[in-house]
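Researcher: Structure prediction, please.
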Amino acid sequence: MTIQTKRFIELSDILAVRLTCKHCGATLSFPIGDDKLKRDQSSSPFLSVCPSCHQIWAELGGSSYESVITRTTAALNRLREILHGNPPAPLGFSLVLEITPETVTDQRKETMP
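Model: Predicted structure follows.
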């Protein structure tokens, strides 16, 4: 038997963006509203290498994906402002994100009488 519980979060529940280096395990966490996450493409890169081991992070084949990360967090911040600002926009819906549920598998073995 498998049991699943759906889990949802509101945008206002997202507190930070956390990056963990796949090479050394160092973590870097930025509050979702951090100015570094609001940079435009002309700003100096801050996610190109791990600050601990200097392993390349957001670059692949000569292209940087840092702007994708900053645009995504900027879009999340803009949605938060619209939906949860003061006053919130008078939209006809609420928005939540569904996240991967934890799956628990029942390991009990049923025996025949």
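Model: The chain has one domain: 2-89.
Researcher: Thanks, that helps.
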